[in-house]
Amino acid sequence: MIRRRTLLTTALAATAAIGLAACSDDGEGTGGASDGGGASDGGGGAPALSGVTVSEDLGAEPTVEFTAPLQISEADAEVIVPGDGAAIAEGDTIIWRHLYIDASSGETLQSWWQGAPAGGVQVNAEAVGPAAFEVFTSMTVGSRFAMAGWQQDQSGQARSLIQVADVDRVVEPLRAEGTAGKPSGTFPKVTLGDDGAPALDGAPSGDAPTKTTREELIVGAGDTTVAGDYLTMHYTGWKWSDGSQFDSSWDRSAPFSFVQGQGQVITGWDENLLDLAVGSQVMLVVPAEEAYKDQGELAGETLVFVIDVLDAAHLTD
């Protein structure tokens, strides 16, 4: 997960082991993907999910039945209900509704149907692992899938988990689209590459703002972002001090996602990406106190971000 004082990096995929969810001790977590496939005993035996029954009613929260504790010696994955939407391809960013169950106890740790955030992942073999990549690229939008695997909680303990998720959509387009905004002209002008990637036409000048300042460069026409959304975006960040770029999701060809309002990102993001239409592009100028304060490589820096809001998956429909 992305913490408020760490550098922004791509975090759609699991961050530890084959991770299903970055679960904390209280069962909260963010959506990641498991590395599915393989037999539960290292080969030759029954797959981990062979003893798990998952309901097929896509209109209701999945019910998951198994005898706990479920032993998972190797990751496993399967499609429960094929969807009737478009095929999922390499590089797609998919959004899903999901639940996570502790395989050792049978306890539901997190469920979108019970008020937890949605989740998603970019379908990239390097990010999710070759087995999960094979499963994802065999699915279509609307599919329900199950995966069994492990993830480390915040204490470093590995948890065995079952993930069941319904794939809701593929995020597209992967750039802001809408009408031109009316920036103040106080900050550097933004130019866009052919793919939509932003650049500044010069270094910032003058005194930096003391509170995060937001300007809409493109006004989208999609749903409005609210607290608790699983937001997906492209972004680039520059230092106010010299105009140098320090990070960009565009350079990785990987959109970035996080849950709004849960402290997973810097304060300037958490508090200033609300009430925006999906499809919008905004500039955020974030002072150090609302960015990384005195921590890390960007300690003391005011930061300039240009952010394309690509998707907002709500807590409920």
From TrEMBL:
The keyword ATP-binding does not apply. It holds the Pfam family FKBP_C. One of its GO terms (molecular function) is peptidyl-prolyl cis-trans isomerase activity. Residues 27-52 are annotated as: Disordered. The keyword Iron does not apply. Residues 228-313 form the PPIase FKBP-type domain. Keywords: Isomerase, Rotamase, Signal. Transmembrane segments: none annotated. InterPro entries: FKBP2/11 (IPR044609), PPIase_dom_sf (IPR046357), PPIase_FKBP_dom (IPR001179). PANTHER family: PEPTIDYLPROLYL ISOMERASE (PTHR45779). This is Peptidyl-prolyl cis-trans isomerase. It comes from Brachybacterium tyrofermentans.
